[in-house]
């Protein structure tokens, strides 16, 4: 005899928690040289400190386009950044995801592709050893870079076009 919903031995599952606020998406750019230099910007929170160029993706914007825009605004150097070296999902105290962080591959050249005068004030090609005490996400990105491991950054399942559209209204499923 077939079972009905009323005589099923399993109880209904509790409703899953819902994310009630937008997920913060952040990008960091890792551009390196074969002679072990990395493009960095001065850290405004640490005197004499340096950090990788980074920022937050605006709602409706594309992580790739944001990384390229940040590269130019923070360093004065245009970087094509279409692949990720490391990605992490940050969870809040409730266990729900609150942020998604990408470290994007900003490319590797034989020597610094531009001199210090070409870069924005506060940007520079620093020795890679300055990343030795970086967070685990950056450490994993460096390992992926050393092993040639990258994944494409996709938006809605495809590589984003260079002319990513600006958001027009509420999100609608495809």
Content-based structural category: alpha+beta
How many strands, which pairing sense, and closed or not: the largest β-sheet? 5 strands, mixed
Number of separate strands = 8
Cα separation of the termini: 42 Å
H and E order: EEEEHEEEHE
Characterize the structure shown.
The protein starts with 23 loop residues before the first strand and ends in a 22-residue tail after the last strand. The chain has a five-stranded mixed β-sheet with strand order 4-1-6-5-8. A three-stranded antiparallel β-sheet has the order 3-2-7, with no helix packed on it. By secondary structure, it is α+β, with helices and mostly antiparallel strands. A hairpin with a 7-residue loop joins strand 2 (37-42) and strand 3. The protein is 14% helix and 29% strand. It contains two helices and eight strands.
Task: Looking at this protein, list some descriptive labels.
globular; alpha+beta; 174 residues; 3-stranded antiparallel sheet; disordered C terminus
Please describe the topology of this protein:
Elements: E1 24-33, E2 37-42, E3 50-51, E4 54-57, H1 63-75, E5 83-91, E6 97-109, E7 123-127, H2 136-147, E8 151-152
Parallel strand pairs: 1-6
Antiparallel strand pairs: 1-4, 2-3, 2-7, 5-6, 5-8
